[in-house]
Every structure is written in C-alpha cells, then in structure tokens.
Amino acid sequence: MQNNNAPIGLFDSGVGGTSIWQEIDELLPRENTIYLADSRNAPYGEKPTEEIIKLSIKNTELLLEMGCKIIVVACNTATTNAIDLLRAKYDIPFIGIEPAIKPAALKSKSGVVGVLATKGTLNSKLFHETANQYGGETKRVEIVGDGLVPLIEKGVFKGPEIDLLLKKYLHPMIEAGVDHIVLGCSHYPYLIPAIKSHLPEHIELIDSGYAVARQTKAILEKNRLLSTAEPTDSNGYKIFWTNGDPNPLSQLIKIRSALGSKPGIIPTILEKEF
Ligand code: DGL
User: Fold this and answer.
1) Please, are residues 235 and 85 in contact by the beta-carbon 8 Å criterion?
2) What is the Cα–Cα distance from 107 to 14, expressed in whole angstroms?
3) For 36, which of 11, 164, 221, 237 could close a Cys bridge (C-beta 3.0–4.6 Å)?
4) DSSP letter for each residue of 28-72
5) pTM more than 0.85
6) pLDDT tens readout for residues 200-235
7) Collapsed DSSP state (helix, strand, coil) of residue 142
8) Whose C-alpha lies nearest to ligand 1, atom 8?
9) Could you tell me which residue, 257 or 249, shows the higher pLDDT?
10) What is the model's pLDDT at position 247?
11) Domains in the chain, ordered, with CATH?
C-alpha cells in the first residue's frame, strides 16, 4: 500500500550525504525524511565492491523497516557500486548520486575537467560507463581524495591537514588546465571554501546535490508519492540516525539550518547500532 506521507530515506557512509539532504529539504520541505549516517563504517571509498554492496543492503533494509517510500543513496561510492543491484532486489524507487561529468563537460571551454572522488567511485564500472557516455571528447583528470572523508567525519573542514591533502590533489588538475572540477563525493561540498582557496578564480566547482533533489521530486511525482501535507502544514519531521559520533553530524545540520532552512525544521539526531 502506498503511503504518501511515509518518509524519504537517505543513507551515506557518514555525514557527507547531509549535503544532499539539505537540497532535498529545501525543495521538498513538507516531506518527512530519515537519514542514516553509517559513520562507523566510513570510509566506504577504500572498501572492496562486495563490502560496499553489503553495507548498502544493510542500510536499505533498515530504511525499509522504517517504512521509507523512496531511498536516496546519498553517496557516490555506494551508488556507483551498488545501485543496480539495489534496484533489482527491492521494489521501491532508488535515486542515486554520481559525479556530474555531463554538466562539467558541456560547460568546459578548455576541454579538460577534474574529478575528485573516492577510489571506489573512480574504479567502478558504472562511473566509467556514465563518464564515457556523457563526457564527450572532454579529457578527465581523475584524482582520489584519499584521507579527506575521515577528516570530515571528525568535523574537520579546514586547516593544515586539509590544506596539505588538497594541495596534493588539486595541483595536478590545475597543471593539466582544468576549468571545472567535479566534486564526486557527497562529503566534499563541505570543503568548498578550503578547495576554492587553492584554485585560481576561473576554475568552477560542480556538485550534484541540486540535481539529485530535482530527480527525487520528479520520481515522487511520477509515482504519485509526493507528500499530501498541505502548504499551510508545518514542515515534515527530519530524523537523523548515526552509529558514530553525533557531534559532527549535529554541527553540519546546524550549519545547514543556519544557511538556509526555514524555521520550523527541528532535526532530531539519534544514536543507534547498525
Ligand atoms: N560520501 C561518499 C561518497 O559520496 C563516500 C565517502 C567514503 O565513505 O569514502 O562517495
């Protein structure tokens, strides 16, 4: 039985997918949402495909138990390694996030774009298929952002450790003449100020958060699953489950709320073993 007021479920290897949650919340404020931060198992990007699939199944089953009507895989690594299997296994719509190669290739004037993502994403079959299909003639400089996710998971978004890594990863892109850099990991939008401080002004950053939110809305509409809450109703409930340290998560939700969320949203952060 379809339930329009069932929650949208989201999961990520940790706190990064809150960058996607925020876009969804902005576009669909009356929807109820449940977010799983699998921080205990982060980073996914270094794990073998079979393990990423196993973790994605575990997260999906928990969200299904919680009655979610649609699942947003708010993690590039889980999407590129597991979404085909999840779609085949479960009878519920899935939205994924993949590095935004297409808009970067369309906008690029230099014909060279950078992609900063995890090893798991850059090595996946799905990423290569999509990138080759939509990347056209554009040359890609693909760099693994090793070490960034564990720092973000600890609530570190700037400072010497971040700068050291960013310098190492961004330098080859700048040298190769990129004019766009695709942020291919949902954790990386939290590094935008730090990343920008290492780049000449003409290099643009591209992330997929807003596109994922638009796609979520379109799929809910297509399946007649949009919330039936009236425009005058207050916002939906926003629940965050974490199996790690709740502090970085609460810090990010607070940053996000201060940046743009409407009054009335009171995110609830809860701890759980999963
Ligand atoms: N946030 C994830 C992504 O979008 C995964 C990071 C990780 O756990 O390695 O790829």
Assistant:
1) no
2) 31
3) 11
4) -TTS-EEEEE-GGG---TTS-HHHHHHHHHHHHHHHHHTT-SEEE
5) yes
6) 999 999 999 999 999 999 999 999 999 988 766 667
7) strand
8) 43
9) 249
10) 92
11) 8-97+210-271 (3.40.50.1860), 101-207 (3.40.50.1860)
